User: What shape does this take?
Amino acid sequence: MPSDLNIDALRDSALSAIGAAESLDALEAARVAHTGRRSAIVEILSGIGKLAPEERGPTGKAANAARKAIEAALDERHTRLEAAAMGDQLLEDRTDVTLPGDPFPVGALHLLTQVRTEIEDVFLGLGYRIADGPEIEDGYHNFTALNIPEAHPARSSSDTFYVAGHDDIALRPQTSPVQVRVMESGPPPVFIVSPGAVYRRDDVDATHSPMFHQLEGLAVDEGLTLSHLKGTLVHVARALLGDDVEYVVRPHFFPFTEPSIELYVRWMDRHGRGQWLELLGAGMVDPNVFASVGYDPERWTGFAFGMGIDRMAMVRYGLPDLRLLFENDLRFLEQFA
Ligand code: DAH
Assistant: This one.
């Protein structure tokens, strides 16, 4: 017959097994062994009915108390082991804040945007303002108001991109129509520059592309002369390309200026040879252009110019090929970020 002593011994050995369990698995094994259906305590409890009547009460009481103590110890140990397991898991999952982060790509201004802004800044410093105009233009602003005759090759679809189905609407082949729009919008004096994209069916080589960028300039006031034009252009070329920039001014022809000039600067080509590169066309505004916008050509004079922004970038940074600016190869662009 199990005595109280026996029951105490069973309880103590169960409690020490529970105390020794170092994992939830080990604890579960102790629970099965000490409170499971085949455990000694349960066997005692289920054998109570076979005991002598006077033993049933005390034995049942002692066995139940022992089972309760064992179950309480199991519960307590379970809570503790579970918390420890959770702590281990948390330690394992801990974020290592000393690891290098995922790189986050930071954008930068495109080289052309940088050069455009630098050119704008020089003109803003001279008191010019920046004007804007549409890239899709009508024939009047693209050509007629600029004194470009009906038969001029620039008007033909072999030079200019026309909008399909509209023989009077084209992608502007130059920024010069902005001159007309600015003069239409108000009286002189006018001092503006207007940067933007232009489009031509140009043969593609290292210095040409069917889309490129110009910066148009227009100054209208009383008493402006070719000297003012040349002084302005040389000032800008020096500001952007250095005081020792080598330049040449040559006479030229444009329908919207009289007289007309071109400015060339020295540039290193892809073979490292110094070349003269045409940077801009310019001239004194033709009286016919003033007449088409209602300015009095007897009172006002002015000069205008159209500078290649992409070409300015080529000369300034010694680029061998203008097309590099439009291919968007990051290995190239990142050098100027
Ligand atoms: N529009 C000319 C071109 O595309 C450049 C130019 C020449 C602009 C003379 C002007 C100018 O304003 O007066 O080549």
